[in-house]
Design brief:
- By secondary structure, this protein is an alpha+beta fold.
- The chain is built from 3 helices and 10 strands; from the N terminus they run αβββββββααβββ.
- It has one domain.
- Helix content is 17%, strand content 32%.
- The strands form 2 sheets. A 5-stranded mixed sheet has the order 2-1-10-8-7. Strands 3, 4, 5, 6 and 9 form a 5-stranded mixed sheet that branches.
């Protein structure tokens, strides 16, 4: 009987000490959200929230392979050396996003009753992954912002990190004779 009790205690201990790497500590408050907005019509197309281990700072770094024919761009959370975005860039073709592999659909995002006002433009920061990274001469910040300004997650992130930058990344998977209908803005916020 004693062995049975010891076996039961041992089993319970093993179950409670599950070290599943796919589970993130629920007490962490460090997360980043990528929100995808269509380049041409500023329609919110979905997004992905990624949870990371705790750290005090947030810097986006990059690896860029110019599209001689096939290129790519990766964005990283520098302090943690963790991938935020990975997408192909194809000359005279069309690349694809490989990370995040999926995004949550727009209807899965909770909205609030009123839109947040457009932040001061100096709060926006273009993600320059190359000295020749393409960004339009004039960016319609208002239209981009209006597409996400009623999302609860945006409200929560701005409230928890009011001095954080609103990182703006233009993903152009088609270049050369690129088709802007294939392009998307990614708004990257840290809570």
């Amino acid at each position: 009987m004693r062995n049975l009790i010891l076996l039961f205690i041992f089993t319970i201990t093993l179950i409670s000490c599950n070290n599943d790497d796919s589970q993130i500590d629920k007490n962490t408050t460090n997360s980043v959200v990528l929100l995808k907005v269509d380049f041409l019509n500023s329609t919110f197309e979905g997004g992905k929230e990624i949870v990371f281990p705790e750290t005090n700072t947030f810097t986006i770094t990059h690896t860029y392979h110019p599209p001689g024919d096939f290129g790519s761009v990766q964005l990283y959370y520098q302090e943690l050396n963790q991938l935020l975005f990975d997408g192909d860039i194809i000359w005279m073709g069309l690349g694809d996003v490989s990370y995040p592999s999926t995004i949550d659909l727009p209807e899965t995002f909770t909205t609030v009753n009123s839109n947040l006002p457009l932040p001061n433009l100096n709060q926006f920061k273009k993600v320059m992954y190359d000295e020749f990274a393409y960004y339009p001469d004039t960016i319609d910040y208002s239209s981009i912002w209006n597409s996400i300004s009623n999302l609860e997650i945006v409200n929560n992130y701005l409230n928890s990190n009011p001095n954080g930058k609103i990182n703006l990344f233009l993903y152009t998977p088609s270049v050369g004779i690129g088709n802007p209908a294939d392009w998307d803005w990614y708004i990257i916020l840290k809570n």
